[in-house]
Amino acid sequence: MELASIVRAAGALEQHLCTVQQRALTAIAQCRTAALGATVSRCDHCGEVEIRYHSCRNRHCPKCQTLAKERWLAARTAELLPVPYFHVVFTLPHALNPLAQGNPRLIYTLLFSSAAATLERFAEDPKWLGAELGVTMILHTWSQALEQHLHVHCLVSAGGLSAAGQWRASKPHFLFPVRALSRVFRGKLLSGLEQAQMRGALKLAEGQASLQPPEAFAALLRTLRAQEWVVYAKQPFAGPQQVLAYLARYTHRIAISNDRLLSDEDGLVRFRYRDRRRGNRPRTMTLSREEFLRRFLLHVLPTGFMRIRHFGLFANRTRAAKLAAARSALKQPAPKPVPPETPVDFLRRVRGIDITRCTHCRHGHLHIVAITRPAWWSARLTTGPPQ
């Protein structure tokens, strides 16, 4: 059972789709089919011909994320500092879901910036740390039942680099007070939301006309300020290896994987999920095919939006210099440079398979004899480039 088969069975959806959603569904339906072309190889021992269809490489496709995840983890391995790490989660109230549906890029960006600014404010306070943290954030927008549940998972170093170039470790098993974190986070995000409303940057999705008057939006802000927001902090990890094993569960996940799908019969899709309201118990949910895809499309990210971001010591622009200073303060040597792996070596290490070995005779090796182009390639050649 695959998500691609559900998408193909649904055909053209009646609901209006934006361009990025339509592209995601098209890519998922065509992934590893003749529509995307193929590589044709022949065995040098038995002469068997093997055809391997190309992947779509769309980040919302459940069949195209394993290798991307492993490549990302391999790149991050050399950057982790030899210190404990905390797991912190910032969650938005569900009352903001309608605004997120109409303004996904703005709300997701506010979520990132507000969470990062909150951690930075507490980290620079000498009462708590007085140093700059290393933070990696990963955006998730779903619950196990495919409902909208906006939150960021943060991997935070248990300590930071002071302005004087010294490493300051956090208290054992404690980073920052969770209740204070949630209130500062709430204030920063609602302030950014109010400024966006004043600039006229907020767009309302269909059925949200009730938020159009200024009084209605002000009432929403008062309601959000009156409730406690959820910020979760977990005990620190034992070391970098445990951190990497944990990150592998979160980095390149999509809303639902193929192994959770059970059936698609008579227009009804059945899938497994865990009910967190009832002790995380495993349950089965049945949705109509249209409702299932509607929920899935809620979690398609805007074009070009980066769902994994780095702040502080891990910020992309200053990462090399700051990590070198942090290792110097920790009196740790710089990691040895790792030569880039070839695709063959990479798959042999990660998946334990040799893609050059013939799957028919198990003795010979495959050699590429032809590459077929995707279906859209010939159409582009006939039309030619734009004048």
Write a structural description:
With 387 residues, this protein is an alpha+beta fold. The protein has helices at 3-10, 19-30, 66-77, 97-102, 104-124, 178-199, 214-226, 240-247, 289-297, 319-330, 343-350, 375-383, and strands at 38-43, 49-53, 85-91, 134-142, 148-157, 159-161, 167-169, 231-234, 261-265, 268-275, 281-288, 308-312, 366-372. Strand 4 and strand 5 (148-157) form a beta hairpin. Helix 1 packs across helix 2. The longest helix has 22 residues, at 178-199.
Shape: globular
N→C terminal distance: 45 Å
> Helical stretch count?
12
**How many beta-strand elements?**
13
**Low-pLDDT segments:** none
Work out the strand percent: 15-25%
Largest sheet: 5 strands, antiparallel
H/E element order: HHEEHEHHEEEEHHEHEEEHEHHEH
- What is the radius of gyration computed over CA atoms, rounded to a whole number of angstroms? 24 Å
Give the overall average pLDDT.
Answer: 87
Record the strand order, biggest sheet.
Answer: 8-3-5-4-12
